[in-house]
Structures are given as structure tokens and as C-alpha cells.
Design a protein that fits this description.
This protein is α/β, with parallel strands linked by helices. It has helices at 41-52, 61-70, 80-85, 110-118, 131-136; strands at residues 2-9, 54-60, 88-91, 103-106, 124-128, 145-150, 170-178, 184-192. It has a single domain, classed as Dihydrofolate Reductase, subunit A, CATH 3.40.430. An eight-stranded mixed β-sheet has the order 4-3-2-5-1-6-8-7, with helices on both faces. It is globular and about 65 Å long. 28% of the residues are buried.
């Protein structure tokens, strides 16, 4: 399976709590729900297409617990069947039970466990949210595609997908579009370490 990282981001790179004020209040975050005002039908179609390519999902503990709380109750949502019914893998060193089935807890050497999952047949193993998990896998060379949905808002605080001191990465653009409400959809393929150069004029 290909490993695809999908993230909702603000213009200042925040990935924490895009869906509601109480989605993720860790570290005192009180600005959740910043992505929702920018949702439109065009982006819903994009997101549904992404979900339709998933054969399994990979979550960090916090995102898994948030999804497990909300999605079993959202049976009328068009994406509920895929999320509720597909295999789910949870990367956690502390979780001992996973109630939102079908689910398997991954512990120990997470990159090695994820690499094993990627060797299984299938289309996409998708990471939704789970920014801490997403930060740990590029260094191991495990991410095959990065899908960012960037909302036209500056949140000003909160956990970021690309924090200071993170792993440098070069990216090749695969696709770009902007929905009517201003969500910039950017899809990239990792290319290893970034290249560097010096800007100058003339010889």
C-alpha cells in the first residue's frame, strides 16, 4: 500500500483542531474549528475522492480517540461507511484497547510496523490528522504522498505540522487547485532532502 499523509492546515501551518472547538484542546488550545467556515461542495468532492482510494487508515492515539468518539454517531454522513468499516491502525505506546473496530494497535518500533503495513497489498494507507505521527514518518522515508488542504486563515497559535527543528524535505508538486471558498489543495511527492542554491545576477 502507498502511505498518504492528509492534513488540514491554516496559512500559518497550524494543524490542531480544525474541525470543532473541542476537537483537540491539548496544551490549552482554544481556537479549534478554524477550517469549518471554509468548507464548500468542491472540497467535499475532493475529500470524498481521497477517501474512496483508502484501503486502511493509520492514526495517532489522539486523533483515533477523537474520530472514535465522533464517527460512529455520524451514520448519515457520506464518508461514514468508509471510515467506520475500513481497517484502522493506531500508533500508540500507551493505548491497550481500541473500541472503534476494526482496529489494530501498533506499538514498539512504529516506523518498522508501518513499513510492514506498506508491504501488504492494497491501494492507500491514509493518515488523517495525527500530526505528531505524520512528523515522525518522513524521516524514515515512508511517506509516498502529501495532501494538504490549506484554509485562508491565520490561527496564530497551535500545534503545527512542520515545527521548528523538523526534518527537511524536498517535494515535487503533483496537483494544485483552489476551491470557491479559498481552500488551497496542494498535493506533493517527497523527493528526499531539499536542494539549496544561491540567488544572484550575472556570472
Amino acid at each position: 500500500m502507498r502511505l498518504v499523509l492528509q492534513e488540514f492546515l491554516s496559512l500559518d501551518g497550524v494543524s490542531q483542531g480544525p474541525g470543532s472547538p473541542d476537537e483537540d484542546t491539548s496544551d490549552g488550545f482554544a481556537r479549534g474549528g478554524w477550517f469549518v467556515p471554509h468548507l464548500d461542495e468542491a472540497f467535499e468532492r475532493v475529500a470524498a475522492g481521497w477517501l474512496g482510494a483508502a484501503d486502511a487508515f493509520l492514526f495517532g492515539r489522539r486523533t483515533y480517540e477523537n474520530f472514535a468518539r465522533d464517527w460512529p454517531e455520524m451514520t448519515d454522513h457520506p464518508n461514514a461507511r468508509i471510515l467506520n468499516g475500513s481497517p484502522k491502525y493506531v500508533a500508540s505506546q500507551t493505548l491497550t484497547e481500541a473500541g472503534w473496530q476494526p482496529a489494530t494497535i501498533l506499538s514498539g518500533d512504529i516506523p518498522a510496523r508501518v513499513a510492514e503495513l506498506k508491504r501488504r497489498p492494497g491501494r492507500e494507507l491514509q493518515i488523517h490528522g495525527s500530526a505528531r505521527l505524520g512528523q515522525s514518518l518522513p524521516a524514515a522515508g515512508l511517506i509516498d504522498e502529501l495532501r494538504l488542504a490549506i484554509a485562508p486563515v491565520v490561527v496564530g497559535s497551535g500545534r503545527r505540522l512542520f515545527p521548528d527543528g523538523g526534518t527537511p524535505a524536498g517535494l515535487r508538486p503533483l496537483h494544485s487547485e483552489t476551491t470557491p471558498s479559498g481552500i488551497a489543495v496542494q498535493i506533493f511527492e517527497p523527493t528526499g532532502l531539499p536542494e539549496y542554491g544561491t540567488y544572484g545576477v550575472g556570472a
